UniProtKB/TrEMBL annotation:
Keyword presence, Iron: no
UniProtKB keywords: Membrane, Transmembrane, Transmembrane helix
Stored SUPFAM superfamilies: HD-domain/PDEase-like
Keyword Transmembrane helix: yes
Name of one Pfam family that matches: HD
Signal peptide interval: none
HD-GYP domain residues: 225-406
Protein name, per record: HD domain-containing protein
TM regions (residue ranges): 76-96, 108-125, 141-164, 176-197
Length: 406
């Protein structure tokens, strides 16, 4: 539905501009170049978000542009949408050349959010409504533009949550958190450029883009550090495979399953990150064994041996610089969901329960990932929900497995 609405908006905008003409082309080109450069400089941000902050700020500024160097502009909603669409396509060319697939969700969100911002501002400005109400100059003008930017950001958050695989409530929380990180800087930059352009013209574009570029560089550096940390953890996790203690790809499969289950259960971005780290390193304690377990299947060991491997793995992890929560998850993943008295209160944290279920599933199903074997393994896990595995985690796994297998 979101994709369809975005396509309809672009087609309608193209038709409108074709009929009524393209106005002030040099202004459109200047903002289009800024948007395209922002798309080229697209970067990975926390929470697996691939964004173009500079391009988003440029599009927002053009949507909220009223005057340029003291002269009124006359572009409308349709031209704003068309300029963004063309610039985004041009900016995506380098990524396409490198073989990267465009992010359709991000494009649909952005065109609808930009179109919404332009709809709030352009008709009222071009028809003189803001002027008649004293909102075309001074603090009132700045406040109205800021309100338009804020509402546009809210629309973007809602659309992102609708397109997310995460449950809606959790997705709204995650997207709102992301908005408070880089989204607030994007909105502020767009507002400042649109207001400043009214006084100093197109010089506002490069001048007020610099702070956002510096902010984006800081996020890019953080993302690079986190990617390096994950690569280090993944390499350490492969030590058990290289040494012959676990089957090839076991750690990565468990991490993929655990992350899917965690997302299904509504874990936040930070919780998903810790869960993934723990899932990758959950078998590191096997390196202490004299003889490898057949197939590396810890789910088939006695409870005491599982806990011993979990404790040893936890001690290794605490010395690697990984967040301490990861070591705690690995240690507790060896514990059953319910205690000996049958109570679940005070049991392992949710992340540990997820890792336990994901590991058991891969241990039992890795030899035959087909649908028949999958249902058989899920039946075994359901049979263990009285004590070993949390029922809601197993049911979340049952929903996630077909998507992962597909």
């Amino acid at each position: 539905m979101v994709h369809g609405a975005a396509v309809v908006l672009v087609v309608v905008s193209l038709g409108w501009v074709s009929v009524f003409g393209f106005v002030e082309p040099w202004i459109a080109v200047a903002f289009g170049v800024l948007i395209a450069l922002g798309e080229v400089a697209r970067t990975a941000l926390p929470g697996e978000r691939d964004q173009a902050p500079l391009g988003a700020a440029g599009a927002l500024a053009y949507a909220l542009l009223g005057s340029l160097a003291g002269e009124r502009t006359h572009h409308g909603v349709a031209q704003v949408v068309l300029v963004w669409s063309i610039a985004a396509l041009v900016g995506a060319v380098p990524s396409l050349v490198r073989g990267r697939r465009p992010n359709a969700d991000s494009a649909a969100r952005r065109v609808l959010a930009v179109g919404f911002a332009a709809l709030l501002f352009q008709p009222l400005y071009n028809r003189g409504v803001l002027l008649r109400h004293g909102l075309e100059h001074g603090p009132g003008y700045a406040a109205y533009i800021a309100a338009c930017a804020g509402l546009s950001a809210g629309v973007d958050v809602c659309l992102a949550a609708l397109l997310s695989e995460t449950p809606l409530r959790r997705a709204l929380c995650d997207e709102t958190t992301a908005l408070l990180r880089i989204g607030s800087a994007v909105a502020a930059t767009g507002v400042v450029i649109s207001i400043a352009a009214g006084e100093i013209g197109l010089w506002a574009l490069p001048l007020f883009s610099v702070p956002l570029l510096l902010t984006q560089a800081g996020f890019r550096r953080y993302a690079a550090i986190r990617a390096t940390q994950r690569q280090t953890i993944a390499s350490l996790a492969r030590a058990t495979e290289v040494a012959g203690y676990t089957l090839p790809g076991h750690a990565q499969r468990v991490a993929t399953i655990a992350r899917g289950v965690g997302r299904e259960l509504g874990l936040s971005d930070q919780e998903l990150l810790l869960l993934e780290y723990a899932a990758l390193m959950h078998d590191i304690g096997q390196l202490s064994l004299v003889d490898p377990i057949p197939g590396g299947a810890t789910a088939l060991l006695c409870p005491e041996e599982q806990r011993r491997i979990g404790r040893l793995g936890s001690e290794v992890i605490r010395r690697t610089g990984v967040p301490p929560e990861v070591a705690e998850i690995v240690a507790r993943a060896a514990e059953p969901y319910r205690g000996a008295d049958g109570a679940s209160d005070g049991g392992p944290p949710l992340a540990a329960r997820i890792v336990r279920v994901a590991n058991a599933y891969d241990d039992l199903a890795c030899d035959d990932p087909g649908p028949a074997r999958r249902e058989e393994v899920l039946a075994q896990l359901r049979a263990g929900t009285e004590r070993e595995y949390e029922p809601r985690v197993v049911e979340a796994l049952a929903r996630v497995c077909p998507r992962i297998s597909g």
